[in-house]
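re: ur question from yesterday

yeah so i grabbed the chain u mentioned. its 87 aa long if i counted rite. heres the sequnce exactly as i have it in my notes:
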Amino acid sequence: MDREITTLISLKEGEEGIVHLISGGRGLIGRLASMGITSGMKIKVLRNIGGPLIITTNGTRIAIGRGQAQKIFIRHLNAGREKTEIA
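ran it thru and got these structure tokens back, copy pasting raw so excuse formatting
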């Protein structure tokens, strides 16, 4: 899989990505769609420190269980960007 594709659960607080793929059955896909989480949607992680993840998408805060977050594949928007230090 592409290096910049990762699961939602692996994103850190403040990181963003675009939903690439949801690996689940119709029930999970429908449940996530009802919350506004569909392929192509931009997601930002607000909290990821154990327990449910708190994310925002389209101006709405959503709590996602860790099991569901493992099934949401994200194209990481911060991938490949390295911080540079000024000497």
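noticed a couple things. The two ends are 36 Å apart (CA to CA). also Confidence is low (pLDDT under 50) at residues 82-87.
anyway ttyl
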